[in-house]
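This entry is listed below:
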Amino acid sequence: MTEKALLQVIADHPYDIAPRLAYADWLEERGDARAEEVRAACRYRLPISREETRHLSAAAAARESASADVVVRTVSPAALGRPLVAGPTGLGALRDDLHHLAVLEVARNFPRDDKGRLQAGAVVLLARYQSAAPLPRFREVWLVAEGPARRSDAQVITVKLGLQIGENHTHNWSRLRWWWDARSAPLGEQERWGVTFAALRAVTGPRRSQALARLHAARQEGTLNRPERIALCTALQDDGRFEDALQLCEVEYPEEVSRLLNGEKFHLRGGCDHPPRSAIPARPAKLRRALWEAAPWRFAEGLASAQARLDAWTQERPGREAKTPHLRLFVFPGSRHQRKPGLMLVRGAGGGPRLAIEFTASNVVFPESEWKRPVELDIARWGSAGVPPGGR
């Protein structure tokens, strides 16, 4: 194939890594130094490596050694200074939740850093209750699990009541009660995540090629069910084919996502952004990890839930303009301005989920527990070592 033909294939498939790598091979065969430049531009679409999954080893060890003794309960409704309503939405619900609080599960599932330590400054929302008295603007009564403020502090998790702005929290387990509520413990993998450990191991282990062939065939025939879609999506993410994974789950994305994954240098549109030189490689690396850890099959549900909350808020305030969700997954490093570029989940042209890069000063976030693949799924499929067997 001629160089012109190879370049045309790349132009026809701008978001596909394969034609670019084929072009790099073609250049290398002819001793052209540009081959390494082409491969470097594709480095963020390469398969996930042992180094990138090594944090799962620490997470697996931390979950295995977790102890209920690190969880301290200091719940005092009186300390709020405001009474809760009686009944199933207030004091009664709090009493039931405390009675069924699974402290060991709180310790096992509490957010951790890449070395397996309790994440400093993390606050996890567990459940919300109705107050019998007016509350400060936007704040609600929450049962929370709070980690140490600093790494040097005692490594304990404190469960208490607090007045919190729910939409500003990265960790919200109110819809994932099996992580802390013993009443939800009997739920199996399929009921929790829509897929089983076995289905994910099939696309992770040594026979993954056979499992993938079956899934790709089902996709072409239009017979993929939800568990199969999740398994195929996860396999595509493992292979660094992030755009393919998003398309499989009908998630739209802008050109900027692919350009960042390419490691291209360009100014983001819509705001003032002049990141330092050190942030240029950090941004695609952060995006790559986020797209690997993401659960795109859950985006539509999360977006619909956020829209329902906004609709309810609008209905309670006649005359207010209807809003659509702009949920922030993370902020890109290196911004020096109040309005920072972030990866957002918004509604696309057809109403479905769409990733966007927007400048925002808002504190509203999309909780990690709703957009990330839970670490327990990755530990279950990679094994307790937390790394791909034999390397990838």
The mean pLDDT is 90. The first strand starts at residue 71 and ends at 73. Strands lie at 71-73, 123-129, 140-146, 157-164, 171-172, 327-331, 340-347, 353-360. Residues 14 and 199 are 31 Å apart (CA to CA).
